[in-house]
TrEMBL record:
Pathway: Amino-acid biosynthesis; L-lysine biosynthesis via DAP pathway; L-lysine from DL-2,6-diaminopimelate: step 1/1. This is Diaminopimelate decarboxylase. Substrate binds at R308, Y312, E339, Y366. SUPFAM superfamilies: Alanine racemase C-terminal domain-like, PLP-binding barrel. It comes from Dyadobacter psychrophilus. Pyridoxal 5'-phosphate binds at G228, Y366. Residues 28-364 form the Orn/DAP/Arg decarboxylase 2 C-terminal domain. It comes from the Bacteria. The gene is lysA. One of its GO terms (biological process) is lysine biosynthetic process via diaminopimelate. Its EC number is 4.1.1.20. The keyword Ligase does not apply. The modification N6-(pyridoxal phosphate)lysine is found at K58.
């Protein structure tokens, strides 16, 4: 969001108040130009490498976002049959979609394979089943757990020894035994370290582990290093230096390929990096309470719309779009849900009055997709601003939407 010299905010030169006047509040707003810019940033960071981006669409599955990704050459990583179906509806061919399950019923894997997607096998029992079911007739990747701890908080670290995800690299002998027993066609190795990782070092460490492991698999086409690049939640936050990381990984990848004897594809699966910054959750202040202990700003939203602050203690920057030049005051910004749904504690904002429009930044990833109907609240509408035009890409939910799956006894 840009702040002009006249102290007004805009997204692609449009005053955000226009969005809520037209589409209602609360409202998710995505800036298409930001998504395009982030994709380009990543595409340019790995010169001379056969690199593919597989957008981890759990971050944001709106079909219009998926279509935009497809148009700009980004493929897809999905974690459920639902996401797979959405990818197909958005126009992806199944071969552009990777299914990265985590302990799902094997029937879901069968559905994905039948549809033509490529599966990331995440356990020894699934590998056994895959071998028994398909022998060497269907290709797959194996999700390795490299036993490296990195990520913005403990809940989003997915590759340490105690994490549920993937097959421990310490079980390599067992993996090789099962692969040999069924002659399974392993075309790639995959790992995903976690989310919100700033430094190059953990990425390089897991890359080295995966490259070393890859030497045991002679028919690889792909090495998939997952996602997890850090974005800027706090103003001035250091983020992953993509150019530096790109250069360092590319160097090691080229060396690995020459040792391996063949040029492989290098895949990444970012979610946050591609869409977080593009998104805003616009809300209105409902009540401003000047309590003896502290000032509270209540908003017409809560953990039902943006759960990251409550689930991970995550920081989301907040702007007072209606009063950017107001006197600074300190508030707890809280939701309307009957839980302690605190968006921000002791946050200094330009003075907030009831009715003011506030914007939560970095709401493009894991915002709407992690939302719920708790307290029988409806989810917001979503709009995409692209080429300076705002389009409704999901209508606001109604009470009928909530009621329609219930049956009368
Ligand atoms: C397997 C896998 N790939 C990619 C991602 C995307 O992570 P991020 O949004 O941090 O890039 C995730 C989410 O944590 C994941 O579990
Ligand atoms: N949902 C997490 C990131 C992905 C975790 C799942 N592997 C977040 O909002 O930061």
């Amino acid at each position: 969001m840009q702040l002009s010299d006249q102290n007004t905010y805009s997204i692609q030169n449009i005053d955000p108040h226009h969005f809520t006047e037209k589409f209602g509040s609360p409202l998710y707003v995505y800036d298409g130009a930001t998504i395009r810019r982030k994709v380009q940033e990543l595409q340019h960071a790995f010169p001379g490498i056969n690199m593919k981006i597989k957008y981890a669409c759990k971050a944001n599955t709106n079909l219009s976002i998926l279509r935009l990704m497809r148009e700009i050459g980004v493929e897809l990583d999905v974690v459920s049959p639902g996401e797979l179906e959405m990818g197909l509806i958005a126009g992806y061919s199944a071969s552009q979609i990777t299914f990265t399950p985590s302990g799902v019923p094997f029937e879901e894997v069968r559905e994905a394979v039948d549809a033509g997607a490529i599966v990331n096998v995440d356990s020894i029992p699934l590998l056994e089943w895959f071998g028994q079911t398909y022998g060497n007739t269907k290709p797959c990747l194996i999700r390795i757990k490299p036993n490296v701890a990195a990520g913005g908080n403990a809940k989003i670290m997915t590759a340490h020894a105690d994490s549920k995800f993937g097959i421990s690299v310490l079980l390599l002998d067992q993996i090789l035994e099962v692969v040999k027993k069924y002659d399974i066609k392993i075309i790639g190795l995959h790992q995903h370290t976690g989310s919100d990782i700033k430094d190059a070092e953990p990425f390089l460490k897991v890359a080295d582990i995966l490259f070393e492991t890859a030497k045991h698999f002679p028919d690889l086409e792909i090495v998939d290093l997952g996602g997890g690049f850090k974005v800027s939640y706090l103003p001035g936050d250091q983020i992953t230096d993509m150019d530096l990381l790109g250069r360092k990984i590319s160097e090691r990848f080229k060396k690995f390929c020459s040792e391996y004897g063949r040029e492989l594809q290098l895949w990444f699966e970012p979610g946050k990096f591609l869409v977080s910054e593009s998104g805003y959750l616009l809300v209105n202040a409902t009540v401003v309470k000047e309590d003896p202990a502290r000032n509270f700003v209540h908003v017409n939203s809560g953990l039902n719309h943006l759960i990251r602050p409550m689930m991970y203690g995550s920081y989301h920057h907040i702007l007072n779009v209606s009063n950017p030049a107001g006197e600074p005051k300190t508030y707890n910004v809280v939701g309307y849900i009957c839980e302690t749904d605190t968006f921000a504690t002791d946050r200094t904002l330009p003075e907030v009055k009831a009715g003011d429009l506030l914007a939560f930044l970095n709401a493009g990833a894991y915002g709407f997709t992690m939302s719920s109907n708790y307290n029988a609240r409806q989810r917001p509408a979503e709009i995409l601003v692209d080429q300076a035009e705002a389009k409704l890409i999901r209508r606001r939910e109604t009470l009928e939407d909530l009621l329609k799956t219930q049956t009368d006894l």
